[in-house]
Write a structure and sequence with these properties.
Blueprint (H helix, E strand, L loop, with lengths): L7 E6 L2 H12 L2 E3 L8 E6 L2 E7 L9 E5 L2 H14 L11 E4 L3 E7 L5 E7 L6 H4 L3 E2 H4 L19
Parallel strand pairs: 1-4, 5-8, 6-9
Antiparallel strand pairs: 2-3, 3-4, 6-7, 7-8
Length: about 160
């Protein structure tokens, strides 16, 4: 069997223009051509993966999300923008800024449709002081034991 990887993620949008602009500004997504389906869609390139936006009134579950690896500067800028917009998700997964093993920081926020988006970056120890003060370190909140201590998000040097 060959190598597998995630090709794309699809999320619903109530306003395609607003959602596309959000991802373009937040993570530097780039619009790419999409086929003409029987519903309105927008395709965006995010590195070597695509994000597909489609018009729908359906809402996913509270914790349904996708994660995007970004550099630390992008995560910091995204946090500040999300905080200004009031879209940092502090509730789901005890969200906001979370420190994971391997010096990784996660940011949870909501897009214009209310979809949960996770941004991941290496460099939690290099966060600006004001953000480091808001960082909730997972191991301090919930001590990791056994196999859990070896868990790593596939990011940066920890990529298999």
């Amino acid at each position: 069997m060959g190598t597998s990887r995630v090709n794309h993620v699809s999320v619903s949008a109530s306003d395609l223009d607003a959602s596309a602009a959000f991802y373009e500004e937040l993570i530097g997504a780039v619009p790419v051509p999409s086929p003409d389906f029987d519903i309105d869609v927008r395709w965006l390139a995010v590195g070597d993966t695509q994000l597909h936006l489609f018009t729908s009134d359906d809402r996913g579950s509270r914790g349904h999300h996708f994660g995007v690896e970004v550099d630390l500067d992008t995560l910091v800028a995204a946090y500040r923008s999300a905080a200004d917009r009031g879209i940092v998700d502090e509730d789901t997964f005890n969200g906001g800024l979370i420190g994971l093993p391997g010096d990784v920081v996660q940011l949870y926020l909501r897009d214009p449709r209310g979809n949960l988006v996770e941004l991941d970056a290496v460099g939690a120890s290099d966060l600006p002081d004001d953000l480091r003060a808001e960082l909730r370190v997972l191991d301090e909140r919930r001590p990791q034991r056994g196999d859990h201590t070896r868990a790593r998000l596939y990011i940066g040097a920890d990529r298999p």
